[in-house]
Amino acid sequence: MSAGASFYITTPIFYVNDVPHIGHAYTEVAADLLARWHRQAGEDAWLLTGTDEHGQKILRTATANGVTPKEWADRLVETAWKPLLKTVDIKNDDFIRTTDERHEVNAQKFLQHLYDAGHIYTGEYEGFYCVGCEEYKQPSDLIEGTGEFIGQQVCAIHSLPVELLHEKNYFFRMSTFAERLLALYEDDPDFVQPAAARNEVISFVKQGLSDLSISRSSFDWGIKVPWDDSHVVYVWFDALLNYITAAGYGQDDEKFSRLWPATHIVGKDILRFHAVIWPAMLMAAGLPVPRRVFGHGWLLVGGEKMSKSKLTGIAPSQITDTFGSDAFRYYFMRAISFGQDGSFSWEDLSARYQSELANGFGNLASRVIAMVVRYCDGEIPVTTAFTDADAAIRATEIRVTDAAGEAISRLAIHEAIASVWELVDELNGYITIQEPWGLAKDPADRDRLDAVLFTAVRGLGTLAVLLSPVVPEACAKLWSALGGEGLVTDQRIDRAWEWTGGTHVSPLEALFPRIEATVG
């Protein structure tokens, strides 16, 4: 990470066919944490999220609910998708909707450019189509149905029957980019991550690419194909373009050149769209490919992927109403190895909240502040009489700062938090061994007491800076109690141990209040 550099990060834009669940919030938090971290490292960080509002799935959902697709999208965006950002404390820089004029107009410019350059032609296609995925499926993507769908081919992701479609559409010559894509994956091993995702994408492309049907004429909810308004643009071809239309493509060259290319955080079920189709589209347009595509795992409930249709969807507010947004953010970023599938359980959430947040970090902060108030009238001691034990804490502050930053550069969010937590644990152990409450009893030990409390306060401030992207609400409260200068979000996270503050602390309420009952 280098100060002043651009760091443009995106979430997928989410379908508005239903309300969000914790799987959507998981992606939002991951991207938000990374944006916050890079911003505190002095970079020009910019976070984009939004909603995907075109396509057959939205049309059918709206029709079933007796409203127009636009009315349905407007309702869901304002009552569910934008409120989600507040629920889990997302600080996005932009929110794009594919029904925004800025997107529709510039998506058409992109499409026209490809058409004029000869990358698009007219053809016919027949295949099995999953409306849930908005995608034609290969035989390997289908499984035998069960229950009411016995005897039918169903989508392996949605477990719903696919439809056999035959259409005369416009096609993107994606097959011509197979070798360039393979060269991209070879020359830039970090382009697709994690490694398992990269291997899957390479294997898929090596099997050969077909040209992509990029228009539909059987329904009219979508962006009109600019040279033929009897067709609308295929929803995925439309949706992928949000990443550049939001960044200024077609209307703000300075902004676009400053921000692009982006790092994309996506679920592994949409990895191929982002790691195969999207870079091919950009290559055809003569634009830089994304900086990185990271396909994270699924959240599992009862061993299955989160799903509204299977009644395993959990609303984020079900968690935040009891545990708070900080606990939501911490739990999902710490408990799950980013990039792998992870199982959610109320029991694990409750246990980690109690042991790691309330007893670990929260109790540490409360004890240190309370002792400075009690033994020093709130004045942070000033001393130079340090021992090896004090120096060891200082060394840990520096070490975990560097280790966390290195992990973030690899998008290993869980490793970054684990590194920082080494300082939490070491400070708790340090206080237990040094026993400042015992030192306070003997005036002869005053210098030692001052050194211990000074060291503990310095360590707490470093934690406030390092954990600010993870648990922003708690760290803002802690920073204020420590008398830190300015906002904690303005502190350089890559030099967290250098933080500066005032001369006094102020009383601190519990950062993570005890929760007696387990929710579930």
UniProtKB/TrEMBL annotation:
GO terms for cellular component: cytoplasm. It holds the Pfam family tRNA-synt_1g. One of its GO terms (molecular function) is metal ion binding. It comes from the Bacteria. Zn(2+) binds at residues 130, 133, 155, 158. Its EC number is 6.1.1.10. Keywords: Aminoacyl-tRNA synthetase, ATP-binding, Cytoplasm, Ligase, Metal-binding, Nucleotide-binding, Protein biosynthesis, Zinc. It catalyses: tRNA(Met) + L-methionine + ATP = L-methionyl-tRNA(Met) + AMP + diphosphate. A motif ('KMSKS' region) lies at residues 305-309. A motif ('HIGH' region) lies at residues 14-24. It is found in: Cytoplasm. One of its GO terms (biological process) is methionyl-tRNA aminoacylation. InterPro entries: Anticodon_Met, Met-tRNA_synth, Met-tRNA_synth_2, Methionyl/Leucyl_tRNA_Synth, MetRS_core, Rossmann-like_a/b/a_fold, tRNAsynth_Ia_anticodon-bd. The keyword DNA damage does not apply. Residues 8-368 form the Methionyl/Leucyl tRNA synthetase domain. Belongs to the class-I aminoacyl-tRNA synthetase family. MetG type 2A subfamily. Monomer. This is Methionine--tRNA ligase. It comes from Cryobacterium zhongshanensis.
